[in-house]
Predict the structure.
Amino acid sequence: TSTNSLSFSFLRITFRSTRRFRAMASHVVGYPRMGPKRELKFALESFWDGKTSADDLQKVSADLRSSIWKQMADAGIKYIPSNTFSYYDQVLDTTAMLGAVPSRYSWNGGEIGFDVYFSMARGNASVPAMEMTKWFDTNYHYIVPELGPHVNFSYASHKAVQEYKEAKSLGVDTVPVLVGPVSYLLLSKPAKGVEKSFSLLSLIEKILPIYKEVVAELKAAGATWIQFDEPTLMMDLDAHQNIWANHLASSLATLQTLEGIVGKDKVVVSTSCSLLHTAVDLVNETKLDKEIKSWLAFAAQKVVEVNALAKAFSGHKDEEYFSSNAAAQASRKSSPRVTNEAVQKAAAALRGSDHRRATNVSARLDAQQKKLNLPILPTTTIGSFPQTMDLRRVRREYKAKKISEDDYVKAIKEEINKVVKLQEEFDIDVLVHGEPERNDMVEYFGEQLSGFAFTVNGWVQSYGSRCVKPPIIYGDVSRPKAMTVFWSSMAQSMTKRPMKGMLTGPVTILNWSFVRNDQPRYETCYQIALAIKDEVEDLEKAGITVIQIDEAALREGLPLRKSEQAFYLEWAVHSFRITNCGVQDTTQIHTHMCYSNFNDIIHSIINMDADVITIENSRSDEKLLSVFREGVKYGAGIGPGVYDIHSPRIPSTEEIADRINKMLAVLETNILWVNPDCGLKTRKYSEVKPALNNMVAAAKLLRTQL
Ligand code: GLN
Ligand code: ZN
């Protein structure tokens, strides 16, 4: 039943064969590190900007660690993790621990400090950053180790030991957490110049001695337990289910069943995966509706749930806590705010039939080109432009009703106008309005759709200091009115060039939200697809001829189990097609994807049947190009990102031209687009202006040579 799968979705019941674990043991696998109010983010960013010192950063970090340890100790958790904190990413921490610094960062040995560490993470003025990729099917990005036979491993970061000692000095005996050696190697890639066929696992012999040193040092410091995270051995994380309150009664029943099988002293109650991927604390959600709140549990509440279960399991059941949990579960089942019959019906009717555009893609592209009349290697951007402090302030003040709607519209209009003029100045071919009215590409839509709820502090780390605040989909989704037509038509009226309408696709809205767990994910996805379809058609009616439907996160919803992938891809791709199956041939549908490793899903991507796809690949050209080199036929427009927007580094014209040339070697000239690899909202204008100038210059240079 759904209640049973709910209870399993976040509880991992761990068996240990040792006698040291006694009844009642409770354990937490990992915890969010940004802080309840994103304290770490702000400390990192001001340190990077040179506004605060390394000491300041260290102080904020130590305070965060100690409050987490204290909170878990107070809750009664027995096995409290340490070394789950990171200044950027735990895989990069492991790279530092093993001294596997790529030579371009000119590290000369010794303990790795902030300069080398952050250069690897973010690049610096002269060297680009290391590649970043998604951690399994989450929206968390880790820094990919670059390994090969040449790497001289050495014990170069004592962070795990330092954190253990730090907790101990605060009176908390922790379980240090290390990325396990097998997963570390399997999550890495061969460094530049190393044979693709090089067996990364063959390095195990070289890294084990360092793990040994670390373990010995931890042992000497007093650690009795060490947790090795080996997720590649399991391939079984279900991170995106994380925020719903557990059905305590059924979990307890499960525990009792297990007890009957293995005996009480071998059962440890734990979270199903690291709480890194969930929001921090419901306590800070003062604006959330009370009823909805009762259905939820964030990291801090899960710690309490785990402990309550462990206690109940050993005979000390908190009756009041259990009965209020049962009441919340019952209210969720029967609440009218969850169900909308009409939406349920419309979504159910979609299943079983196909939805695609009537004309094939090459004929559509011809029709569109007649209308759009674009040069070869057309230039565009992915959507957002830098979000300045002023802009954020205007949005905040409008939300808080401190400025009038008129003033707000005026301010946003000015910003759009500025962005439009700038793009015309750069001579970009297909323009964007810059998304100044959007805080976040999912939140913006969720706020205008019914069935969504929002938190104030429900942040989850995405990469480095970047966090996202996923909306919560608790009920049936519908679109009360048009969401983007006002701004898009305003922007189009400012220019003769095509202005892209900018939407977030259903699969991405789904994958970047906390999704209800009381109906299948595809059901919710179809509901969102119908809402976006209405928006696409309203944009078209308003005269927008190019519409981009971002499916940035399509791949990250891909189940890790191979047997489940085909089904997911089928309904995900179907959902995308539902959104635009009704437009005219001359309306050009773009989509954008935030990853390059789609070699395994390329046929599904083709099956999305978009007219143009832009892809984030600039940290890994090779992977992407190999798909086409291996002979995959691709006839739609394609814009592999020509530079990395995640790094402050400004690419030169030559460098961009060089990349375009590489792509031209495997792709037809008439389908290639030139664009950055993702939205520009996190960058500064001082970076964006020269970069876009160089990008257009490179496209123009190549046009003269073709
Ligand atoms: N259109 C969005 C933007 O430019 C896409 C962002 C993304 O791919 N993550 O911000
Ligand atoms: Zn992107």
Q: What stands out?
A: Residues 382, 552, 592, 594, 616, 678-679 surround zinc ion (ligand 2) (CB under 6 Å). Residues 1-23, 236-240 have pLDDT under 50 and may be disordered. The first strand starts at residue 11 and ends at 15. The two ends are 61 Å apart (CA to CA).
